[in-house]
Amino acid sequence: MTDSSPLATDDANAYRDRVRLPRQRGLNRFARHAFGLRPSCDRRCASRAPPRVNRRSAVDYASVDFRHGATMSTLPLIRPIHPIRPHDLLWMADARDLIVDAPAPAWVTSAWLVQAPVVVRREDTGDSERLPVGVRGMTRAERLAGYLPLSRVVRRVTPENVVEGSASILSTLDANLPCLQAFEQVRARLDGLGFAWGVTGSAGFALATGIRVLRDTSDLDVLIRIPSRPADDVLDACAHACADAPARIDAQIDTGFGGFALLEWRARRGRVLLKTARGPVLVEDPWRPARVEPAQTDAAHR
After folding, report:
1. What's the CATH class of domain 159-254?
2. Which residues pair with 274 in a beta bridge?
3. pLDDT 10s digits, 15-58
4. What is the model's pTM?
5. Measured in whole angstroms, how far is the alpha carbon of residue 267 from the centre of its chain?
6. How many CA atoms lie within 13 A of 166 on its CB side?
7. 219 counts as catalytic
């Protein structure tokens, strides 16, 4: 039964002013300034311009949270300002949020899922609230495809965020690894090209979390976003920026329609393999894939 007496109303208003509203404002402020994201519960911001993203990458906050034993379930649920895209790293609110079609292997534990992010895959699920993701383990053989409800995402790190926040994580990893040496070598070169770029794959996972999954044989996976077709010499400059590195660099160009391998484009004979949400396709122009043919390949949709 609800007490509607004036005294009860005054007490409720006092509680709202002293406790509930300040606490809610604190959560909103935390989500905006720490992660550059808008909380789903902050309705007042819906009609305003999105807050400016804090350039202190969310990667820094990830390492602090894990070192102090916190879990992602202790953070408020948040809604990203920008659309979630392939290669983004996502943390879930609870290990039970992961949806898989078959029983998960033994290495996929609850403890792992609350500290290690999942990566967004290229797949058309037909439902914007159902995200295709992949779980990565400690070894190359440990991979699992699944799905994650958008409403259960508590944190997101893009490939660009990985680069921005790498300084605090590099000191915790083995700097002698060839792929990390390659990252340090090509970083200034890629910054000079003027395109948005980031690190994906195992190197991106390690730089975002500090988890030691890298080996001496690990490649450096780089994603360069070029939304409109550039001149051929621009793509040549991208290739030269990734050349002569201590480790093999797998550079992928993201056109907005999908991604293709830079080296394959330079060595192409008419068409190139474009990885899209509906599978890999052969196209003549990856920036205008009007006519496509399904590719006969087992390449992963990433």
Report:
1. alpha beta
2. 281
3. 455 544 444 454 444 344 444 444 444 333 333 443 343 333 33
4. 0.72
5. 29
6. 20
7. yes
